[in-house]
Amino acid sequence: MFQRTKQKLTLINTDDSSSFWVNGGGVLRNLKDLKDALVQMGEDTFKYHVNAEKNDFAAWVKEILKDEVLAGRILKSKTAKAAAKAIETRLKRYGIE
User: Fold this and answer.
1) Closest Cα partner for 70 from 18, 34, 20, 19?
2) Confidence at residue 3, expressed as pLDDT on a 0 to 100 scale
3) Domain boundaries defined on the chain
4) CA 84, CA 73: separation in Å to the nearest integer?
5) Crossing angle for the helix pair 80-91 and 68-76, to the nearest 10 degrees
6) Mean pLDDT by 10-residue block, N- to C-terminus, for the chain (97 residues)?
7) pLDDT tens-digit profile of 76-87?
8) E strand or H helix at 17
9) What integer pLDDT is reported at residue 7 of this predicted model?
10) Cα separation of 22 and 41, whole Å?
11) Beta strand pairing call for 27-28 and 20-21
12) Which has the closest alpha carbon to 34: 6, 3, 68, 65?
């Protein structure tokens, strides 16, 4: 039997063209920015980006930041706090506490 090792992931920092522009202000360039924004985000802003038709955060994480595992976890999150917690846990794989 062999033991699978967890490989450290590389944090992607976006340029202006692929940054996430939060409704009402704020520009996010990486997962840490997203986590920090979600911690402070109001319910109206969260619901603008996450509703029955879409989840802008999960889409950005999957398509731009290339983390499909985390995108799936964000997709399942029903609140900004839950999404922030999922990102916080995942950031450990990036070597960010």
Assistant:
1) 34
2) 53
3) 27-94
4) 10
5) 150
6) 68 95 96 98 97 97 97 97 98 90
7) 999 999 999 999
8) none
9) 78
10) 10
11) antiparallel
12) 65
